[in-house]
Amino acid sequence: MGMPVITPSRTTRTQAVTDIIESVALEETALSHILNAEGEKIQKMVAMADVTPEQLLATNKSVESMVNAVARLEMILQSKLSTFGNCLCQEDEAQLPTE
Predict the structure, then answer these.
(1) Is the pTM value of this prediction over 0.90?
(2) What does 14-77 look like in DSSP terms, one character per residue?
(3) pLDDT of 7-62, one tens digit each?
């Protein structure tokens, strides 16, 4: 097996940054669905008539673990976005027509 061949892309820097921002937005949407599902899990457990305190504690621990994982992912996504903080603004200003 030989070395992989990497061919140059025709994607512009602006499009690449836009794609990254869009991917972060999609990940944020997915994380919001996960958090919503965790909230629904707690609501269903609390509404059960025969739930034990041990089951509630186990559910709470599970949800806490998921919320912590989501929080860590949020920090990574924020870091990813901050990398491109001023990229598009500077480029857009350069494209504005001068009077």
Answers:
(1) no
(2) HHHHHHHHHHHHHHHHHHHHHHHHHHHHHHHHHH-TT--HHHHHHHHHHHHHHHHHHHHHHHHH
(3) 888 888 888 888 999 999 999 999 999 999 999 999 999 999 999 999 999 999 99
**Going by C-beta distance under 8 Å and a sequence separation of 6 or more, which residues neighbour residue 67?**
35, 38
Which residues neighbour 38 within 8 Å (Cβ) at sequence distance 6 or greater?
63, 66, 67
How many whole angstroms separate alpha carbon 73 and alpha carbon 50? 35
CA distances from 43 to 49, 60, 69 (A): 12, 11, 20
Give the count of alpha carbons within 13 A of 84, CB side only.
17
d(CA 60, CA 45): 10
Tokens for 20?
Answer: 């990254």
Q: What token pair was written down for 21?
A: 């921002």
